[in-house]
Amino acid sequence: MARTYRELESAGLIVSRRGRGTRVAAAWARPPAAVLHERAATFVRDARLLGADDEQIRAAVAAALAP
Length: 67
Known about the structure:
Layout: H1 2-10, E1 14-17, E2 21-24, H2 26-29, H3 32-49, H4 54-65
Antiparallel strand pairs: 1-2
């Protein structure tokens, strides 16, 4: 059980405070659309750091959406 909590905390899904318990991380308490926009922006930033242009980024997203 402790390992599961550590993994959830390292993934940023929960926050544990000694004496205060464990709570869902604030990022997950936000509206899903806001979280999606933030993650999309992070993906685009990281892709650009790898040298990808807009077309390559669009192609990567399209491939990820394909069944």
